[in-house]
Design goal:
The protein is an alpha+beta fold. It has 21 helices and 32 strands.
């Protein structure tokens, strides 16, 4: 096949060899496949467009007829020799068109290859234009540096030809590929997916565009890469597919960017599933292993890992003292913050490479960094970990030994900060994975830690606020239930808002005068800390009103007035998240002497009473309006509770279950309370467990009390004659009674108290006058009269001859007070019993 190649000034061959890749200059080139004998065996549409010959007119004929003038046989032999040597050739030739015209073309001939057992050459031509002489070197340079790898495969899917870019991409030389299949050259590559695609192209003639797969380069076998490949058919004159041309583009950077984005996106579903600081740290470590690192540690500052400690220090500061956030090791580069290991994960079971275990204190940073690294430092990337060069052996010998033992070779350390607050440090290490961390890995590491930092900070803030809420709750609810000798008491409280752990339900047991005990249960609208704060105000008010010994209906009336006043005090247009309006309450007073229980309720469910014989009933109490409505009365009801009776006060969260049927819930509650033979605490827990739905829709409070009678030998009552001379006799009878009760130590003070109270009643009140003594957990002395005049405690001057009676009584007693009754009033005192008494 003759050609007129470009000559140098000396007439020698072109100085720049033409490689086979020039055949794939562009899809517009006229291309043909020519056997070594000069016979055309392949013809393309672009060749037909350029010269006008159809494939049937050319294939099978000698290519010489296409040349406008005969070629020198010696020159043709030299060109063939260069192509067989794998160099290829390019030059200029005159060719004949089918219409008889002649054109000058840039001709390129590839290195020889074998197709169906015959030695062949790929020949491409493009019409030469005046600008080609100027742009040819630019075109050659472009093809030489083309980022696309290209190859030709035989029908048996064996390499026939390839360009230099493909050699570079795969890292396997041409001579090791030609004649072999892809799976033989790259064992482990996704050939099970690639070769079927090429067979499909052979069978159908339809190209496959942009098929992506993962592989590696022999030049860097430890780092996975991604490629995009397209397959095109090669056809002969009859349209028969005689081979495959495929092009490969390295898309590793794009693939890695997608992988990193997916990594950060997936982290959102795996990190921060709970509001627990330690759990969130562990989720970060578990997520990053093994998809990003082989060993991950998350170390948090002490105030973060232990929220009860003082708060962490803000970023941009570097404390050097021994405060709650950091501990100095002498200042300067040796400063090390005190942290605690909060999470770690490893590809090795049990994390044997860990120097510190979960919960242990950690005081190490990547050398030579100090505490300022956490507050304002950038992530540290150590692609190749050299323990000597990075001062590990000097500053942290324990870690240096671990690095050597387990083959740590690459590291990224990222300070954990959120909302301008320093939280800790996360370290990513590779050992099993041979690929070192790259600069591009710093960004996803930073993003992972930043996402986890926000979750940790949220958990830290929640934990601190939750601790404050629980402290508030504990301060608002009773620590003990002082039922005295009158009642055995048990309780259960479960807030609906498990996140906050607090709610608006409350209960109380309040000791009253004369051995009586008040039982209270209430429910504030809403949940959470705001409802708990409102509940605390109401509970305090109930305590204050109970100390005034008000009957239940009057107490609720005063509480109703308070709720209205609190509601009026709320700023207009602001909402506290809950309101005192609509709160409910039940207040009951049990007297162990009379065994009577007086109750009133404000919109609250009625109590449940279980008689000693096991019968269950719900006393019919006037409902009363919820608190805060104002103007509506509250009424009391009185029931008898014999010795051993059980009374249950509760909130509606216990009876309004899944079906929200309160009557059915009350029936279930009665059945659960009727269980016999269980200790009171066990019964309380069992009832809640049986009735409480899951999830719990409302706060639940349950207060159980089992009654006791104050027997006759513990209560003595005497009428006092309206005669001052009767005081001596009353004192004498009191002395004898105390000796009978074994309370001789209280005889002198009690005689003085009785004398003062009885004398005051005789002097200032009207009859009848009665003295009652009760021996319970305390010694109670009561003097009742028909007067409603309140006694007044005076501080007498030194010159006064009287007015010291109540002052002496107050000094000699544990408590004293006045209670008004329909018949008048009662002045009462309490004295603590001696340790050896009773």
């Amino acid at each position: 096949m003759a050609s007129e190649g470009p000559q140098s000034a000396s007439g020698a061959e072109p100085s720049q060899p033409r490689t086979p890749q020039h055949f794939f200059d562009t899809a517009n080139d006229a291309t043909a496949v020519v056997a070594a004998t000069g016979t055309v065996i392949g013809w393309t549409h672009s060749a037909q467009d350029l010269l006008g010959y159809r494939a049937a007119e050319v294939v099978g004929r000698s290519a010489g007829f296409l040349l406008a003038m005969p070629e020198d046989p010696v020159r043709v032999a030299r060109i063939a020799e260069r192509c067989r040597a794998g160099v290829g050739w390019s030059g200029v030739a005159d060719v004949r068109r089918r219409d008889g015209g002649r054109i000058k073309v840039d001709l390129r001939i590839s290195a020889s290859f074998h197709l169906d057992g015959r030695e062949c050459f790929l020949v491409s031509a493009r019409e030469r234009r005046p600008v080609r002489t100027v742009g040819q070197s630019v075109l050659d340079a472009f093809l030489t540096s083309s980022p696309i790898g290209m190859a030709v495969m035989s029908p048996q899917l064996r390499y026939v030809w390839m360009n230099e870019t493909l050699e570079r991409i795969g890292g396997v030389p041409r001579e090791q590929r030609v004649g072999r299949r892809m799976g033989e050259v790259f064992p482990g590559l996704e050939t099970d997916a690639i070769e079927p695609l090429m067979r499909r192209v052979l069978d159908t003639g339809v190209p496959v565009i942009d098929f992506e797969y993962r592989g590696w380069s022999w030049a860097d076998p430890h780092r996975e890469r991604a490629y995009s490949t397209s397959f095109f058919p090669l056809t002969d004159a009859d349209g028969t597919v005689t081979g495959i041309c495929y092009m490969v583009l390295d898309v590793t950077d794009r693939w890695k960017a997608q992988q990193r984005l997916a990594l950060v996106n997936d982290a959102g579903a795996s990190i921060g599933s709970t509001l627990d600081v330690m759990r969130t740290a562990q989720e970060l470590a578990d997520f990053a292993v093994p998809r990003f690192a082989d060993f991950v540690t998350v170390d948090l500052l002490e105030p973060v890992a232990s929220p009860e400690e003082p708060g962490p220090w803000p970023s941009g500061t570097a404390p050097s003292g021994t405060g709650g956030a950091a501990r100095s090791g002498g200042g300067g580069a040796s400063s090390r913050p005190t942290m605690r290991r909060a999470g770690m994960s490893s590809v090795r079971e049990g994390c044997p490479e860990a120097v510190y275990r979960i919960g242990e204190q950690v005081d190490s940073l990547p050398p030579p960094h100090d505490v300022r690294f956490l507050s304002d430092g950038e992530p540290v990337l150590i692609p190749a970990l050299d323990t000597v060069r990075h001062l590990w052996a000097v500053e942290q010998p324990a870690r240096e030994a671990t690095i050597r033992e387990f083959g740590f070779h690459s590291l990224i350390a990222v300070p954990m900060r959120a909302r301008d607050t320093v939280l800790g440090l996360t370290t990513f290490v590779r050992s099993v994975n041979p690929a070192a961390f790259e600069p591009d890995d710093v960004l996803p590491a930073r993003d992972l830690v930043a996402r986890a930092a926000v979750c940790v900070d949220n958990a830290r803030r929640y934990t601190r606020e939750h601790a404050a809420a629980l402290t508030l709750q504990r301060s608002l609810l009773p620590h003990t239930l002082p039922g005295g000798m009158a009642l055995d008491v048990a309780s259960s409280y479960l807030p609906a808002d498990a996140k906050d752990g607090v709610g608006g339900d409350w209960f109380d047991v309040i000791p009253l005068s004369s051995a009586r005990v008040a039982l209270v249960v209430g429910d504030v609208v809403g949940h959470g800390i705001s409802a708990a704060a409102t509940m605390g105000r109401l509970r305090t008010a109930v305590h204050t009103l109970a100390d005034m010994d008000l009957p239940p209906d009057e107490l609720l009336a005063h509480l109703d007035d308070l709720v209205i006043r609190l509601s009026d005090e709320e700023p207009e247009g602001e909402s506290s998240g809950t309101t005192v309006l609509g709160a409910t309450c039940l207040y009951a007073v049990y007297d162990p002497v009379t065994q009577l229980c007086t109750m009133a309720r404000a919109g609250h469910p009625p109590p449940v009473v279980v008689a000693p014989d096991g019968r269950v009933n719900f006393p019919e109490l006037p409902a009363g309006p919820p608190l805060g409505l104002g103007g509506l009365p509250f009424e009391t009801a009185e029931i008898e509770l014999p010795e051993g009776s059980l009374i249950a006060l509760y909130t509606n969260g216990l009876i309004e279950g899944r079906d929200r049927d309160a009557e059915l819930g009350m029936s279930r509650l009665g059945g659960a309370l009727a269980q016999r033979g269980l200790p009171l605490d066990t019964l309380c827990a069992t009832v809640v467990e049986q009735l409480l739905p899951v999830p719990q829709p409302d706060d639940v409070a349950l207060l159980l009390a089992r009654t006791h009678e104050l027997s006759a030998d513990h209560v003595v009552s005497w009428e006092v004659p309206s005669d001052p001379a009767a005081v001596a006799g009353i004192r004498a009878r009191t002395a004898r009674l105390l000796r009978t009760w074994g309370l001789e130590e209280l005889q002198m003070t009690t005689e003085l108290i009785v004398s003062e109270l009885v004398t005051n009643a005789l002097r200032h009140a009207t009859g009848p006058i009665r003295l009652r003594l009760l021996r319970q957990s305390v010694l109670i002395c009561e003097v009742s009269d028909a007067s409603s005049t309140s006694p007044r405690l005076r501080h007498a001057r030194t010159t006064d001859e009287g007015g010291r009676g109540l002052f002496l009584v107050a000094q000699l007693t544990h408590r004293w007070g006045t209670r008004y009754t329909p018949e008048g009033k009662i002045i009462w005192t309490e004295q603590e019993l001696p340790v050896t008494g009773m």
